Amino acid sequence: MKKITDLQGTFELHNGVQMPYFGLGVYLSKDGNEVTNAVKEALNHGYRHIDTASIYNNEKGVGIGVEESNIERKDVFVVSKVWNSDQGYDTTLKAFDDSLERLGMDYLDLYLIHWPKGDRSKETWRAMERLYNEKRVRSIGVSNFLQHHIEDLLTEADIVPMVNQMEFHPYLVQQELVDFCNQKGIQYEAWSPMMQGKIFDLDVLKDLANKYDKTVAQIVLHWDLQKGVVTIPKSVKKERIISNATIFDFELTPEDVQLLDSLDKGQRFGPDPDNFDF
């Protein structure tokens, strides 16, 4: 079991880079003041990990938030992703440059392939390996890759992805995929940990929240971390940003971790990596 200590704690990626295991996601956060203020609030409250993507159309605001915070760039773990229409070798290199320009930064801490696109993703990965070898990005990884997508990528890859960011919550645990990634040294990361808000309707979660005197969100986020899964809850509200991170003063019993695991029903609230059309 990986040790969970505090908001600035990290998991070590297989190349030795320390990745803060708790961060702020900015999906659907509007560019401009909304996302800039959320990033500043998070960083000034102690967060050290910000996750964006080119398709979110808010990289500029994220960059301004990092710059205007009280935290130095080198102390913030910044993530972005290459979108599907930019996949391919040359187009990925350009997309990376464009993301850096919007962010106002000269490197990224992690760059991800946003969705698996078969052979095009192999070309994308070759470009990402180049960016990594040129030290323009500290780590590279994938998002929404099932086991067969990763195995296919590895037939031509020189570098094993450092991270796989997946939809992950009590209704979609995919323990076999988690185990496969762990065996390969690929850090698992959760998106949509709150099941797009549906988590708050589950009686099991309400009972656990009462038992530990925590909120439903805090229970789920701590469950992520106890399972060794990086988590990046999204919020633009100051109170929620602070509340989400107030999870380091308790621990779920092994039985309660298993209880949440047992809710798994393979149910997605986002797109299926094997069946999407974008």
Automatic annotation (TrEMBL):
Family: Belongs to the aldo/keto reductase family.
Marked site (Lowers pKa of active site Tyr) residue numbers: 81
Domain NADP-dependent oxidoreductase, residue spans: 31-264
Keyword NADP: yes
Organism whose genome encodes this protein: Flagellimonas eckloniae
Signal peptide: none
Record-annotated membrane-spanning stretches: none
Source organism, top-level taxon: Bacteria
Xref: InterPro entries: AKR, AKR5G, Aldo/ket_reductase_CS, NAD(P)_OxRdtase_dom_sf, NADP_OxRdtase_dom
MF terms in GO: oxidoreductase activity, acting on the CH-OH group of donors, NAD or NADP as acceptor
Protein name listed in UniProt: Glyoxal reductase
Residues the record marks as active site: 56 (proton donor)
Keywords of the record: NADP, Oxidoreductase
Residues given in the record as substrate binding sites: 114
